[in-house]
Specification:
The chain has 206 residues and is of the alpha/beta class. The protein is 28% helix and 27% strand. It is built from 5 helices and 12 strands. The strands form 4 sheets. The protein has a 5-stranded mixed beta sheet with strand order 6-9-10-11-12. Strand 2 and strand 3 form a beta hairpin. It is globular and about 65 Å long. It starts with a strand and ends with a helix. The structure holds ligand PMT. The site of ligand PMT has 29 residues, from helix 1, helix 3 and strand 9.
Length: 206
Amino acid sequence: VTAGPTFEPIDPVRGLTNRSSGKQGYAIAAALADLGARVTLVSGPVALSAPPGVERVWVETAREMQAAVDAALPADIAVMSAAVADWRVDAVASGKLKKAPGGPPSLALIENPDILAGVSAPEARRPALVVGFAAETSDLEANARAKLSRKGCDWIVGNDVSDEVFGADANAVTLFTRDGGAENWPRQSKAEVARKLVARIVAHFA
Ligand code: PMT
C-alpha cells in the first residue's frame, strides 16, 4: 500500500508537495492487516502512526517511493493511494535559493516515474491485483477510466477531490473495474471506505 504525499526538493529548505494526509491509505493498510494480510505501507511524509501489524517504510520523493515499492515486491495485492508528484525539479539547488533583484527563479520540471504503471506492467512480479486511485476535480468517470487503461491496473478508485477530501476523515469514491463495472460508495469515513475496498478484494480472490 502506498500512502501520503511525496515531497520533491527545490533546494535544502523548500519543496513541491500536495495536501494528502495519508489518512485514506493508512486506513486501507489497517483494514488489510486487520484481516491478516502481511502489509508493507510505503508512506510519504505524514503525521500518522503506523497501524498495528503494518510494516511502514518512510520515503520522501517519488523516486524513493518507486524504489521502496520495488523492494516490497513480490506481493499478491498492490493498492496505490499515494498522491505522487508527477514532476520534480530538474536541478535541485545545493544551497538555499536567495531572493535576487532579477526576480524569482524559474524552476524547470521533469517527469517523475509512474510507479503505478510500473507495478501494473505485465511481468513476473506483477501483483495479481493492482488497485490505483484517480484524484480528479472534473469528469471523474472519464478521467478515472482513462487512467485505468493508460496505467494498466485492474481497478481504479475514482476520488473527486474538489471538496473536503484531502486531510478529511470522510470520503466518497467510485470503484471502476476493468470489465466496465462501477460502484458508488457515498460519503462515509475513510475507515469505512477502506473496509469496503478490502471486502471487495477478499470477494475478488474468493
Ligand atoms: O491522504 P488523504 O488526505 O486521506 O487523501 C486521500 C487521497 C485524496 C490522496 C486519495 O484518496 C487519492 O485520491 N489518492 C490518489 C492521489 C493522486 O495523486 O492521484 P493521481 O490521479 O494523480 O494518480 C493516479 C494514480 O497513479 C494513483 O494511484 C497514484 O498513486 C499513481 N501515481 C501517480 C503519479 C506517479 N508519478 N506515480 C504513480 O504511481
